[in-house]
Amino acid sequence: MLAQIDIEKVLFLDIETVPEYPNYTDVPERFQKLWDKKSKSFVGEEETSADVYNRAGIYAEFGKIVCISVGFVARTSEGLTLRITSFANDDELILLNEFATLLNKHYYNIQMHRLCGHNGKEFDFPFIARRMLIHGMPLPALLNIGGLKPWENPHLDTMTYWKFGEFKNFTSLDLLAAIFEIPTPKDDIDGSQVYGVYYEENDLDRIVEYCQKDVVTLVQVYRKLGGQSLIEESNIKMV
To answer: Number of folded domains in the chain?
Structure first.
């Protein structure tokens, strides 16, 4: 099925998120209490909800997006090319507005355009939509999928394709890259380190680079799942 989809109409993306506040003590009291309730299910016996606050970034109600990296594939005389760019900002509203502008201008038709991520249906796409609503933003068409029938959903998910209907399966993007012998340029940080890199090192550029590399891997895994050849490294550009 993937091979039948026009890859030039697919926007590939990955997001990086962090807790909304640097530390538990910075969280407003009302949300501290709500985080205490939320974290009860995974806090250890010798831990407190404050000790696990670094995990708050995976929940849209307690986290924020600091980077959305996107990939555009085009057919040229040199073959398929991949261009990667990012929306990154300490002010989440700014990057969300920039991303929404892209969707509203170039990816506005749910019958024609698609979003693709790895575990995107469970994480990236709903996280972005929820954060937009929290900021009072109208949802672009590709994110406003409430009420759509399953076959009308414009979202593609490489992890869903790899599941083949198996609900309990979770396979990381890195593992799929290794299985398909896809060269991966990601050699710096991993997702568990994003919190520290952002709040302790104040290095958003490093997070952007990490996120962009994930999008490259995502596109190559997508190609393999469709039984197609990889995009040549020389045809990949990060801007």
So the answer is: 1
